[in-house]
Amino acid sequence: MKRRKVLLGGLGFASLLTTVACGGGQSANNQGADSKTLTMLTSPDYPPYGFYETSGGGRKIVGFDIDIANYIAKELGYQLRVQESDFNGLIPALQANRADFVMAGMTPTDERKKNVDFSNIYFQAQNTIVALKGSNLVKAENLAGKRVGVQLGSIQEGDLKKIAEKVQGIQVKTLNRVPEIIQEIKAKRIDAAIIEDTVVRGFTQANPDLEYNVIPSEGPSGSAIAFPKGSQRVAQFNQVLDKMKASGELDRLAKQWFSASVPASPAASPSPTK
Fold first, then answer.
1. 17-124+221-258 falls under which CATH superfamily?
2. Which end of the chain is more exposed for a tag (fewer CB within 10 A), N or C?
3. Could you say which of 3.40.50.1450, 3.30.420.40, 3.40.50.1820, 3.40.190.10 is the CATH number of the domain covering 127-215?
4. Taking the model in full, what pTM does it have?
Protein backbone atom coordinates (compact mmCIF):
# COMPACT_ATOMS: atom_id res chain seq x y z
CA MET A 1 0.00 0.00 0.00
CA LYS A 2 1.39 3.24 -0.95
CA ARG A 3 0.39 5.50 1.88
CA ARG A 4 0.63 8.68 -0.12
CA LYS A 5 -1.35 11.90 0.08
CA VAL A 6 -2.31 14.03 -2.93
CA LEU A 7 -1.97 17.81 -2.69
CA LEU A 8 -5.12 19.38 -4.10
CA GLY A 9 -5.92 22.71 -5.68
CA GLY A 10 -3.87 24.73 -8.14
CA LEU A 11 -1.74 21.77 -9.22
CA GLY A 12 -1.07 20.89 -12.83
CA PHE A 13 -0.53 17.51 -14.33
CA ALA A 14 3.25 17.34 -13.95
CA SER A 15 5.27 15.09 -16.21
CA LEU A 16 2.21 13.59 -17.91
CA LEU A 17 3.36 10.94 -20.38
CA THR A 18 1.51 8.26 -22.34
CA THR A 19 2.98 4.77 -22.30
CA VAL A 20 1.13 1.84 -23.89
CA ALA A 21 1.09 -1.09 -21.48
CA CYS A 22 -1.48 -3.22 -23.25
CA GLY A 23 -2.97 -2.15 -26.53
CA GLY A 24 -3.69 1.43 -27.60
CA GLY A 25 -6.62 3.73 -28.08
CA GLN A 26 -7.99 7.20 -27.48
CA SER A 27 -7.06 9.46 -24.59
CA ALA A 28 -9.49 9.42 -21.68
CA ASN A 29 -10.99 12.80 -22.39
CA ASN A 30 -11.83 11.75 -25.97
CA GLN A 31 -13.33 8.39 -25.20
CA GLY A 32 -16.92 7.69 -26.08
CA ALA A 33 -19.31 5.36 -24.30
CA ASP A 34 -18.37 2.49 -26.64
CA SER A 35 -14.57 2.94 -26.28
CA LYS A 36 -12.72 -0.29 -25.58
CA THR A 37 -9.68 1.38 -24.05
CA LEU A 38 -9.24 2.22 -20.37
CA THR A 39 -6.74 4.93 -19.47
CA MET A 40 -4.88 4.43 -16.22
CA LEU A 41 -2.74 7.09 -14.58
CA THR A 42 0.14 6.20 -12.25
CA SER A 43 3.30 7.60 -10.67
CA PRO A 44 6.03 5.17 -11.80
CA ASP A 45 8.56 5.93 -9.06
CA TYR A 46 7.27 3.51 -6.46
CA PRO A 47 8.51 -0.07 -6.95
CA PRO A 48 7.15 -2.63 -6.88
CA TYR A 49 3.75 -0.96 -7.44
CA GLY A 50 4.89 0.85 -10.59
CA PHE A 51 8.33 1.67 -12.00
CA TYR A 52 10.29 1.77 -15.25
CA GLU A 53 11.82 -1.43 -16.56
CA THR A 54 14.74 -0.42 -18.78
CA SER A 55 16.56 -3.72 -19.29
CA GLY A 56 17.25 -4.71 -22.88
CA GLY A 57 17.23 -1.11 -24.03
CA GLY A 58 13.47 -0.70 -23.65
CA ARG A 59 11.54 1.60 -21.33
CA LYS A 60 8.24 0.29 -20.00
CA ILE A 61 6.20 0.86 -16.85
CA VAL A 62 5.77 -2.43 -14.98
CA GLY A 63 4.80 -3.50 -11.47
CA PHE A 64 2.18 -4.90 -9.11
CA ASP A 65 -0.41 -2.21 -9.92
CA ILE A 66 0.17 -2.58 -13.67
CA ASP A 67 -0.43 -6.33 -13.55
CA ILE A 68 -3.64 -5.87 -11.55
CA ALA A 69 -4.85 -3.17 -13.97
CA ASN A 70 -4.10 -5.36 -16.99
CA TYR A 71 -5.98 -8.27 -15.41
CA ILE A 72 -9.02 -6.10 -14.65
CA ALA A 73 -9.03 -4.54 -18.12
CA LYS A 74 -8.90 -7.96 -19.77
CA GLU A 75 -11.72 -9.30 -17.56
CA LEU A 76 -13.89 -6.32 -18.49
CA GLY A 77 -13.09 -6.59 -22.20
CA TYR A 78 -10.86 -3.51 -22.52
CA GLN A 79 -7.36 -2.68 -23.65
CA LEU A 80 -5.25 -0.74 -21.17
CA ARG A 81 -3.34 2.49 -21.76
CA VAL A 82 -0.98 3.66 -19.00
CA GLN A 83 -0.04 7.31 -18.51
CA GLU A 84 2.33 8.77 -15.92
CA SER A 85 2.28 11.82 -13.68
CA ASP A 86 4.01 13.01 -10.55
CA PHE A 87 2.04 11.67 -7.62
CA ASN A 88 0.65 15.04 -6.55
CA GLY A 89 -0.94 15.45 -10.00
CA LEU A 90 -2.93 12.21 -9.98
CA ILE A 91 -6.18 13.31 -8.34
CA PRO A 92 -6.31 16.66 -10.16
CA ALA A 93 -5.96 14.69 -13.42
CA LEU A 94 -8.89 12.46 -12.46
CA GLN A 95 -10.95 15.52 -11.60
CA ALA A 96 -10.23 16.88 -15.09
CA ASN A 97 -11.22 13.54 -16.68
CA ARG A 98 -7.72 12.92 -18.01
CA ALA A 99 -7.94 9.24 -17.04
CA ASP A 100 -10.49 6.56 -16.21
CA PHE A 101 -8.75 5.51 -13.00
CA VAL A 102 -5.58 5.84 -10.94
CA MET A 103 -3.47 3.08 -9.44
CA ALA A 104 -0.39 4.17 -7.52
CA GLY A 105 -0.58 2.37 -4.18
CA MET A 106 -2.96 5.13 -3.11
CA THR A 107 -4.60 5.14 0.32
CA PRO A 108 -8.32 6.10 0.41
CA THR A 109 -8.22 8.85 3.02
CA ASP A 110 -11.26 10.92 4.00
CA GLU A 111 -9.67 13.96 2.33
CA ARG A 112 -9.30 12.14 -0.98
CA LYS A 113 -12.81 10.71 -0.82
CA LYS A 114 -14.12 14.27 -1.07
CA ASN A 115 -12.63 14.48 -4.57
CA VAL A 116 -12.59 10.96 -6.00
CA ASP A 117 -14.25 7.57 -5.49
CA PHE A 118 -12.33 4.45 -4.46
CA SER A 119 -12.49 0.72 -4.99
CA ASN A 120 -12.15 -1.77 -2.15
CA ILE A 121 -8.68 -2.11 -0.57
CA TYR A 122 -6.46 -4.48 -2.55
CA PHE A 123 -3.24 -4.43 -0.47
CA GLN A 124 -1.89 -3.43 2.96
CA ALA A 125 1.62 -2.30 4.02
CA GLN A 126 3.41 -0.30 6.75
CA ASN A 127 5.60 2.78 7.22
CA THR A 128 9.34 2.47 7.92
CA ILE A 129 12.27 4.65 8.90
CA VAL A 130 15.08 4.09 6.38
CA ALA A 131 18.60 5.28 7.13
CA LEU A 132 22.25 4.36 6.71
CA LYS A 133 23.13 1.06 8.36
CA GLY A 134 24.09 1.49 11.99
CA SER A 135 22.08 4.69 12.47
CA ASN A 136 19.91 2.94 15.07
CA LEU A 137 16.80 4.91 14.12
CA VAL A 138 14.31 2.27 15.19
CA LYS A 139 11.36 4.38 16.38
CA ALA A 140 9.86 7.81 15.77
CA GLU A 141 11.40 9.25 18.95
CA ASN A 142 14.88 8.58 17.52
CA LEU A 143 14.22 11.20 14.81
CA ALA A 144 14.57 14.10 17.26
CA GLY A 145 16.94 16.67 15.77
CA LYS A 146 17.27 14.71 12.50
CA ARG A 147 16.85 15.76 8.88
CA VAL A 148 14.11 13.47 7.56
CA GLY A 149 13.06 13.06 3.94
CA VAL A 150 9.65 12.14 2.56
CA GLN A 151 7.91 12.12 -0.80
CA LEU A 152 5.98 15.26 -1.68
CA GLY A 153 2.24 14.68 -1.71
CA SER A 154 2.49 11.32 0.04
CA ILE A 155 0.62 9.96 3.03
CA GLN A 156 4.05 9.57 4.58
CA GLU A 157 4.48 13.35 4.35
CA GLY A 158 1.40 13.83 6.49
CA ASP A 159 2.53 11.10 8.89
CA LEU A 160 5.96 12.70 9.27
CA LYS A 161 4.41 16.07 10.04
CA LYS A 162 2.33 14.41 12.78
CA ILE A 163 5.49 12.82 14.17
CA ALA A 164 7.24 16.22 14.06
CA GLU A 165 4.46 17.68 16.21
CA LYS A 166 5.36 15.15 18.94
CA VAL A 167 9.11 14.82 18.46
CA GLN A 168 11.14 18.02 18.72
CA GLY A 169 13.73 19.19 16.24
CA ILE A 170 12.77 17.17 13.17
CA GLN A 171 13.68 18.95 9.93
CA VAL A 172 11.35 17.79 7.16
CA LYS A 173 12.68 17.67 3.58
CA THR A 174 10.21 16.87 0.78
CA LEU A 175 11.30 15.42 -2.57
CA ASN A 176 9.34 14.44 -5.68
CA ARG A 177 10.55 10.86 -6.13
CA VAL A 178 11.62 8.03 -3.86
CA PRO A 179 14.94 7.38 -5.69
CA GLU A 180 15.88 11.00 -4.97
CA ILE A 181 15.20 10.42 -1.27
CA ILE A 182 17.42 7.33 -1.27
CA GLN A 183 20.25 9.27 -2.87
CA GLU A 184 19.90 12.06 -0.30
CA ILE A 185 20.33 9.50 2.49
CA LYS A 186 23.37 7.94 0.83
CA ALA A 187 24.92 11.38 0.31
CA LYS A 188 24.25 12.19 4.00
CA ARG A 189 22.26 15.28 3.10
CA ILE A 190 19.42 13.84 5.19
CA ASP A 191 19.63 11.44 8.12
CA ALA A 192 16.59 9.30 7.39
CA ALA A 193 13.31 9.04 5.50
CA ILE A 194 9.80 7.68 5.98
CA ILE A 195 8.98 5.20 3.19
CA GLU A 196 6.58 2.26 2.88
CA ASP A 197 8.05 -1.14 3.77
CA THR A 198 7.13 -2.89 0.51
CA VAL A 199 8.89 -0.14 -1.44
CA VAL A 200 11.98 0.36 0.71
CA ARG A 201 12.67 -3.40 0.72
CA GLY A 202 13.79 -3.27 -2.90
CA PHE A 203 15.97 -0.23 -2.33
CA THR A 204 17.72 -1.80 0.67
CA GLN A 205 18.33 -4.97 -1.33
CA ALA A 206 20.04 -2.85 -3.98
CA ASN A 207 21.82 -0.67 -1.39
CA PRO A 208 23.26 -2.83 1.41
CA ASP A 209 24.51 0.28 3.23
CA LEU A 210 20.87 1.08 4.10
CA GLU A 211 18.57 -0.38 6.74
CA TYR A 212 14.93 0.15 7.72
CA ASN A 213 12.67 -0.32 10.72
CA VAL A 214 8.88 -0.58 10.69
CA ILE A 215 7.01 2.05 12.70
CA PRO A 216 3.29 2.41 13.53
CA SER A 217 1.18 4.19 10.93
CA GLU A 218 -0.26 7.57 11.89
CA GLY A 219 -3.50 7.30 9.89
CA PRO A 220 -5.44 5.27 7.29
CA SER A 221 -3.71 2.40 5.52
CA GLY A 222 -4.23 0.18 2.48
CA SER A 223 -4.13 0.70 -1.27
CA ALA A 224 -7.20 1.21 -3.45
CA ILE A 225 -8.02 2.24 -7.02
CA ALA A 226 -9.20 5.85 -7.48
CA PHE A 227 -11.88 6.98 -9.96
CA PRO A 228 -13.53 10.27 -10.93
CA LYS A 229 -16.46 11.11 -8.68
CA GLY A 230 -19.59 9.21 -9.69
CA SER A 231 -17.74 6.72 -11.91
CA GLN A 232 -19.78 3.63 -12.77
CA ARG A 233 -16.57 1.63 -13.02
CA VAL A 234 -16.15 1.31 -9.25
CA ALA A 235 -18.62 -1.58 -8.95
CA GLN A 236 -17.19 -3.31 -12.04
CA PHE A 237 -13.63 -3.11 -10.69
CA ASN A 238 -14.73 -4.31 -7.24
CA GLN A 239 -16.30 -7.39 -8.79
CA VAL A 240 -13.05 -8.28 -10.52
CA LEU A 241 -10.99 -7.55 -7.39
CA ASP A 242 -13.28 -9.86 -5.40
CA LYS A 243 -12.76 -12.54 -8.05
CA MET A 244 -8.97 -12.05 -7.88
CA LYS A 245 -9.03 -12.39 -4.10
CA ALA A 246 -11.20 -15.52 -4.19
CA SER A 247 -9.07 -17.21 -6.85
CA GLY A 248 -5.78 -16.35 -5.14
CA GLU A 249 -4.63 -14.19 -8.08
CA LEU A 250 -4.02 -11.14 -5.87
CA ASP A 251 -1.93 -13.21 -3.47
CA ARG A 252 0.03 -14.67 -6.38
CA LEU A 253 0.83 -11.23 -7.80
CA ALA A 254 1.74 -9.89 -4.35
CA LYS A 255 4.18 -12.76 -3.76
CA GLN A 256 5.63 -12.27 -7.25
CA TRP A 257 6.26 -8.53 -6.88
CA PHE A 258 6.95 -8.09 -3.18
CA SER A 259 9.48 -10.89 -2.99
CA ALA A 260 11.40 -9.77 -6.08
CA SER A 261 14.36 -7.41 -6.26
CA VAL A 262 13.76 -4.12 -8.07
CA PRO A 263 16.16 -1.69 -9.74
CA ALA A 264 18.15 0.64 -7.51
CA SER A 265 16.86 3.65 -9.47
CA PRO A 266 13.60 2.44 -11.05
CA ALA A 267 12.34 5.90 -11.98
CA ALA A 268 14.29 6.69 -15.12
CA SER A 269 14.52 10.22 -16.45
CA PRO A 270 11.12 11.07 -17.95
CA SER A 271 10.66 11.40 -21.67
CA PRO A 272 9.34 14.68 -23.07
CA THR A 273 5.71 15.28 -22.16
CA LYS A 274 3.27 14.42 -24.98
1. Periplasmic binding protein-like II (3.40.190.10)
2. C
3. 3.40.190.10
4. 0.63
Q: What is the 3-state secondary structure of the chain?
A: CCCCCCCCCCCCCCCCEEEEEECCCCCHHHCCCCCCEEEEEECCEECCCEEEECHHHCCEEECHHHHHHHHHHHHCCCEEEEEECCHHHHHHHHHCCCCCEECCCCCCCHHHHCCEEECCCCECCCEEEEEECCCCCCCHHHHCCCEEEEECCCHHHHHHHHHHHHCCCCEEEEECCHHHHHHHHHCCCCCEEEEEHHHHHHHHHHCCCEEEEEECCCCCCCECCEEECCCCHHHHHHHHHHHHHHHCHHHHHHHHHHCCCCCCCCCCCCCCCC
Report strand pairing: 147-151 vs 50-53.
unpaired
Number of Cβ within 10 Å of residue 248's Cβ equals 10
Q: Is residue 54 a contact partner of residue 12, using CB atoms and an 8 Å limit?
A: no
pLDDT digits over 215-274, tens only?
987 667 789 999 999 999 999 999 999 999 999 999 899 888 876 554 444 433 333 222
